[in-house]
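To the wet lab folks,

You asked to see what we're planning to order before we commit. Fair enough. Below is the target structure as tokens, and below that is the sequence we designed to fit it. If anything looks off to you, flag it before the synthesis order goes out.
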């Protein structure tokens, strides 16, 4: 849920974006692309699912969990039934608009037409739980689900937590509930919060303001947009949908993407405030093979098997195209591309889609790019049984690029990445014969950066050079990563020089691959004993591309801070040039930021010591 204080399984950060006004032509672009792609995707899906079909009705299972010292909020069955039916209608409406027919979630109803909601009482009082208690709460729900014949590890479940505090006299409300989700086509869990004022009947209300502990003074309708929309959004995660925002042309045509800020715009059309929320084509394509939507369980437990090949990139207009071929059994019926700027998590990712032809060939047209940002193209291959190959799976297909201030894409980093990819695969397999053959190829040797990286990775297990004080005086410049540390301490794992961990290997930050450097998890301190003969230390620092984090970098000489980066956010790279004349003890220190520290992988990029000749 966007702006939630609790981290979603898919959340890595939050950013605010400015959108440009879109013309009618842009709006029609979003509309015109849908019909031919959906028709082609359906042809592949139907052909595979209709041969030896396996049908089943998989339902969404709901739990109302309450601490042991609280009773469920009044009329919970009636309220939650109305809310979940509205969400069911939303998915059906959007899937039908896009062309898949009214496919939607299936709900478990009782004879009275209200939902079958499993009530679970927690083992502890309210004060013992918090936003991070999701796993504990889920564990407490398992015996009740098992007794009802439900295996939570093989089904999709929604847990409404009775963790809101409503004061009807003061009209104030706060919540201290888990509010996140994650899942696949096989299973998923979404945690939500229930409250006495969570009510579909209030969604159109423009007044009757309440004061929410997080969102301030808002109308009763706004409260329900945020929290009913949050249920719909987090359910999307439980159904395997990642975050993305709408492209400008989609926004003009349809409104706000559900898996971006669409949780907060849900139902706004009822109050005349916006066009409301919608499903992007990328997410509709993904849901089309989900067993709960399709009714097909054929091959549901088969592993991902998509194998892309012949991948190439070329500039097109302001952006670029990715072309390739993919083979798989079950067949791939859609390829999704998420253009995700570094920093800000994946909320700001825009999407592009392609349907493979009979030979498996496809082209992704990547145009909805953010100006002045380095970014990653993340690619997913959707197979007809519902499985996905790609980011957040065992095989991450990620391709780096950058965009200048005028919005023009630079794909030189893509070219280097593609050249290095087979080299890194050979290194991972310890096949050094193939490694050396690739490194000596004509195309490879034309890229100076690739040649330098290949040489360093080839010798990554060799001993460091001499201690700094022992370096020959005739050597006037040397990478710091080539010298032996006197002391190393890190927050997690071990520090690495001239490489990142396998299988990434590359020191990549800010839309660039660096030839050498130092990689360590913060908080980290790396120390060298110098002889006072060096004059300058130059280089850059930042976090590894794809990590959502913030850190502070400091260079300390003989106990004195020589340079302080301030807080460096994810996606940013800061250069430095520091005088170290006479310094005997040099320290590079990385401190953690205010965010989640698990992603605090710091990189000191191409740090070089220099001195004057005598």
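Sequence we intend to order:
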């Amino acid at each position: 849920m966007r702006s939630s204080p609790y981290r979603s399984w898919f959340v890595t950060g939050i950013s605010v974006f400015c959108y440009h006004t879109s013309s009618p032509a842009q709006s029609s672009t979003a509309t015109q692309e849908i019909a031919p792609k959906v028709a082609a995707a359906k042809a592949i899906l139907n052909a595979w699912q209709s041969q030896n079909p396996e049908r089943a009705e998989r339902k969404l299972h709901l739990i109302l969990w309450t601490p042991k010292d609280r009773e469920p909020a009044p009329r919970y069955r009636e309220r939650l039934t109305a809310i979940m039916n509205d969400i069911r209608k939303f998915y059906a409406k959007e899937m039908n608009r896009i062309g898949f027919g009214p496919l939607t979630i299936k709900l478990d109803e009782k004879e009275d037409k209200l939902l079958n909601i499993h009530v679970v009482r927690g083992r502890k009082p309210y004060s013992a739980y918090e936003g991070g208690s999701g796993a504990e709460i889920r564990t407490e729900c398992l015996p009740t689900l098992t007794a009802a014949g439900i295996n939570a590890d093989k089904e999709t479940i929604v847990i409404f937590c009775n963790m809101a505090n409503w004061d009807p006299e003061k009209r104030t409300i706060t919540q201290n509930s888990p509010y996140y989700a994650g899942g696949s086509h096989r299973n998923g869990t979404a945690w939500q919060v229930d409250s006495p004022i969570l009510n579909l009947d209030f969604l159109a209300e423009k007044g009757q303001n309440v004061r929410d502990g997080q969102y301030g003074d808002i109308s009763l309708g706004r409260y329900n947009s945020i929290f009913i929309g949050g249920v719909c959004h987090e359910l999307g995660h439980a159904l395997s949908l990642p975050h993305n925002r709408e492209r400008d042309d989609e926004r003009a045509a349809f409104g706000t993407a559900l898996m971006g800020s669409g949780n907060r715009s849900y139902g706004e059309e009822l109050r005349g405030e916006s066009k409301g929320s919608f499903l992007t084509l990328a997410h509709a394509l993904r849901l089309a093979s989900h067993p709960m939507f399709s009714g097909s369980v054929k091959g549901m437990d088969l592993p991902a098997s998509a194998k892309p090949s012949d991948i190439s990139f070329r500039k097109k207009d302001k952006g670029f195209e990715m072309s390739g071929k993919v083979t798989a059994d079950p067949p791939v019926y859609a390829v999704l591309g998420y253009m995700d700027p570094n920093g800000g998590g994946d909320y700001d990712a825009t999407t592009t889609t392609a349907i493979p032809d009979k030979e498996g060939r496809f082209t992704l047209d990547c145009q909805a790019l953010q100006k002045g940002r380095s970014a990653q193209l993340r690619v997913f291959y959707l197979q007809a049984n519902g499985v996905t190959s790609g980011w957040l799976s065992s095989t991450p297909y990620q391709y780096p690029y950058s965009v200048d201030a005028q919005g023009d894409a630079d794909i030189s980093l893509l070219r280097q990445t593609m050249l290095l990819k087979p080299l890194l695969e050979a290194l991972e397999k310890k096949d050094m014969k193939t490694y050396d053959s690739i490194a000596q190829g004509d195309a490879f040797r034309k890229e100076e950066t690739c040649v330098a990286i290949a040489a360093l990775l080839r010798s990554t297990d060799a001993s460091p050079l001499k201690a700094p004080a022992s370096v020959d005086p005739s050597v006037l410049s040397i990478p710091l990563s080539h010298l032996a540390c006197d002391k190393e301490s890190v927050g997690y794992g071990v520090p690495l020089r001239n490489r990142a961990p396998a299988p990434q290997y590359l020191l990549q930050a800010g839309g660039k691959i660096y030839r050498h450097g130092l990689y360590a998890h913060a908080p980290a301190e790396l120390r060298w004993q110098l002889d006072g003969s060096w004059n300058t230390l130059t280089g850059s620092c930042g976090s590894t591309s794809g990590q959502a984090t913030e850190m502070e970098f400091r260079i300390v000489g003989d106990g004195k801070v020589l340079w302080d980066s301030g807080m460096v956010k994810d996606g940013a790279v800061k250069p430095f040039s520091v005088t170290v004349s006479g310094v005997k003890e040099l320290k590079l220190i990385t401190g953690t930021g205010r965010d989640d520290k698990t992603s605090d992988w710091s990189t000191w990029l191409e740090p070089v010591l220099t001195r004057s000749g005598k």
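Structural context that might help your review: Confidence is low (pLDDT under 50) at residues 1-23. The longest strand covers residues 307-316.

Thanks,
Computational group
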